[in-house]
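User: Just a sanity check before I run the rest of the batch. Below are the structure tokens for the first item. I only need the designed sequence back.
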């Protein structure tokens, strides 16, 4: 048995015009191709092949089907042999499995959705009932031939209209429910899913009806409503217009991805027929994988507002994960794809596509315009926005180019930036388990106070870090006398730890890359401070005195709780008092 997934891949890979054109003399006629019918030996060009639908049809003998059906009828092959022949032509390997025999169990769902699509189309043409939808379409300059070509329709507000119509055709409630046309309430009551909506049919790669997108006309929420997940409809694995665009995508070796149904319809009608759109959601992994099987080159044309840019870069990262090259198309200010193509046509759009820039370069461009590389704190945040794209990039050459470019604009070493990109994304603190020091507190038990609760000496920490930043010759000296555990302030501790890990000669820009954003702010403040440097000896003495105070508090608590060796704790307390006297710590430090 040939798996369904393999059959779909073969069908998607097949150029029906090229294959049938080897047996029939085809000539282009509008969006389709015409030739004499090979089945009734016609002489006139009544035989039509539609690359958009992946189907052929004879207007005389009414023979129709897909590329497999053509080989079955024309060469007398059985179904598996026709699939194998097409697979051989397009270079898709066939690995057969043992499994289901007979009709595809999904066929009933394709049928009921196709019947619903025809019902919606008829209701749109209804003089009275479809008027609101037709007026909306007219307001968007979508004429009747265009509407027909894309199968747009109208779901009436009457909750029984579609349900009763399909029932009369033999499609019971169970099949309508499984096809996503009915919804079931918590109390078990069934209701029509789409009411008062302009209906956009969604077809799979083989051109079969699998679901709908419905846009509300008038008041109502949500604005767009898609079919639910079913055995034939999966939002994350389908792309609007892919069935019509796949051959053009292969021929052009590129795909234009837009946000909305109407953007895709408008652009496809302008002659740029290698365009697809996600189903009202962010581009998903399955959708990116589908595109990667068809081409390696993606162009993103989303709205230029803040939401559109976020969607653009999310889509870009997803496509980069699949090894694709991603370019960003930018339209003049205030234009969206639909309005621009409506006013200007497809040729000017192609000019903008020709001037598209790489997704990573576009990110840098926007960050530079916003002044994000002007100071350390913002530079760190800018690099934080670039690193996820580097991390997502699967192609090693592209990743290296991105690292080189980011290091150049960020003023950091490429090696350090690469190490940062190789680290897994840091989880937010809200998702981390409670720390060990938090747990006893939550339980209401008193424990020796942790170091973070002793706040004396923070100014000494600041002074020492500032010395290390200003006078790198002091770094080695201080690293011999201090450890990260001696720092209580998390930002100063992070800066000190970065100097320990990366060395005294690490540029400030590189430090800013590896420490948290809050520590970058501290870096900027310390570097902006032009006052004389504090005494290193005084700062070291303050920090050691603070350590004595902290340990004394811990010993007192342990003795109160009768934990540990009492004599040893008493002796340690005496040693601490003598050291505090030597350092001339304030008296409370050595009591």
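Assistant: Here's the designed sequence for the first item:
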């Amino acid at each position: 048995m040939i798996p369904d997934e393999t059959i779909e891949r073969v069908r998607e890979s097949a150029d029906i015009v090229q294959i049938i054109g080897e047996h029939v003399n085809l000539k282009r006629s509008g969006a389709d191709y015409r030739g004499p019918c090979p089945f009734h030996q016609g002489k006139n060009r009544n035989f039509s092949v539609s690359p958009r639908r992946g189907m052929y049809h004879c207007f005389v003998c009414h023979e129709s089907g897909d590329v497999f059906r053509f080989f079955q009828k024309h060469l007398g092959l059985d179904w598996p042999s026709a699939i194998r022949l097409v697979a051989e032509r397009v270079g898709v390997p066939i690995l057969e499995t043992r499994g289901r025999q007979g009709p595809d169990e999904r066929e009933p769902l394709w049928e009921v959705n196709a019947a619903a699509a025809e019902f919606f189309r008829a209701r749109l043409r209804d003089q009275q009932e479809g008027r609101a939808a037709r007026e909306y379409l007219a307001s968007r300059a979508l004429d009747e031939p265009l509407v027909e070509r894309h199968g747009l329709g109208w779901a009436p507000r009457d909750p029984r209209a579609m349900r009763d119509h399909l029932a009369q055709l033999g499609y019971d409630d169970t099949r309508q429910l499984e096809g996503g046309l009915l919804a079931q309430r918590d109390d078990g009551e069934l209701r029509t899913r789409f009411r008062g909506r302009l209906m956009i049919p969604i077809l799979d790669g083989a051109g079969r009806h699998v679901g709908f997108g419905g846009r509300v006309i008038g008041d109502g929420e949500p604005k767009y409503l898609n079919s639910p997940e079913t055995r034939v409809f999966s939002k994350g694995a389908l792309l609007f217009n892919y069935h019509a665009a796949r051959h053009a995508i292969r021929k052009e070796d590129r795909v234009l991805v837009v946000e909305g149904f109407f953007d895709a319809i408008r652009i496809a009608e302008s002659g740029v027929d290698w365009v697809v759109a996600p189903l009202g959601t962010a581009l998903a992994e399955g959708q990116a994988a589908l595109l990667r099987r068809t081409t390696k080159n993606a162009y993103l044309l989303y709205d230029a507002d803040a939401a559109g840019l976020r969607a653009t870069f999310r889509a870009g990262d997803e496509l980069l994960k699949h090894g694709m090259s991603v370019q960003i198309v930018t339209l003049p200010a205030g234009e969206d794809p639909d309005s621009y193509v409506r006013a200007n046509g497809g040729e000017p759009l192609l000019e903008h596509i020709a001037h598209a820039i790489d997704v990573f370069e576009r990110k840098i461009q926007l960050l530079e315009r916003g002044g994000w590389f002007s100071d350390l704190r913002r530079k760190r945040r800018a690099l934080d926005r670039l690193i996820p794209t580097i991390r997502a990039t699967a192609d090693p050459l592209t990743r290296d180019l991105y690292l080189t470019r980011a290091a150049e604009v960020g003023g950091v070493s490429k090696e350090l930036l690469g190490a940062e990109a190789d680290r897994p994304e840091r989880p937010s603190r809200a998702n981390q388990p409670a720390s060990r020091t938090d747990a006893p507190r939550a339980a209401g038990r008193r424990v020796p106070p942790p170091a973070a609760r002793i706040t004396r000496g923070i100014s000494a920490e600041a002074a020492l870090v500032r010395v290390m930043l200003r006078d790198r010759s002091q770094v080695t000296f201080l690293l011999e006398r201090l450890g990260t555990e001696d720092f209580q302030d998390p930002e100063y501790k992070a800066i000190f730890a970065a100097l320990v890990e990366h060395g005294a000669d690490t540029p400030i820009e590189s430090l800013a890359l590896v420490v948290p954003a809050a520590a970058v702010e501290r870096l900027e403040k310390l570097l902006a401070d032009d006052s004389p440097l504090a005494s290193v000896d005084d700062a070291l003495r303050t920090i050691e005195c603070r350590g004595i105070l902290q340990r004394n508090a811990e010993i007192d608590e342990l003795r109160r709780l009768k934990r540990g060796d009492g004599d040893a704790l008493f002796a340690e307390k005496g040693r601490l008092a003598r050291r505090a006297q030597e350092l001339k710590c304030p008296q409370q430090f050595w009591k």
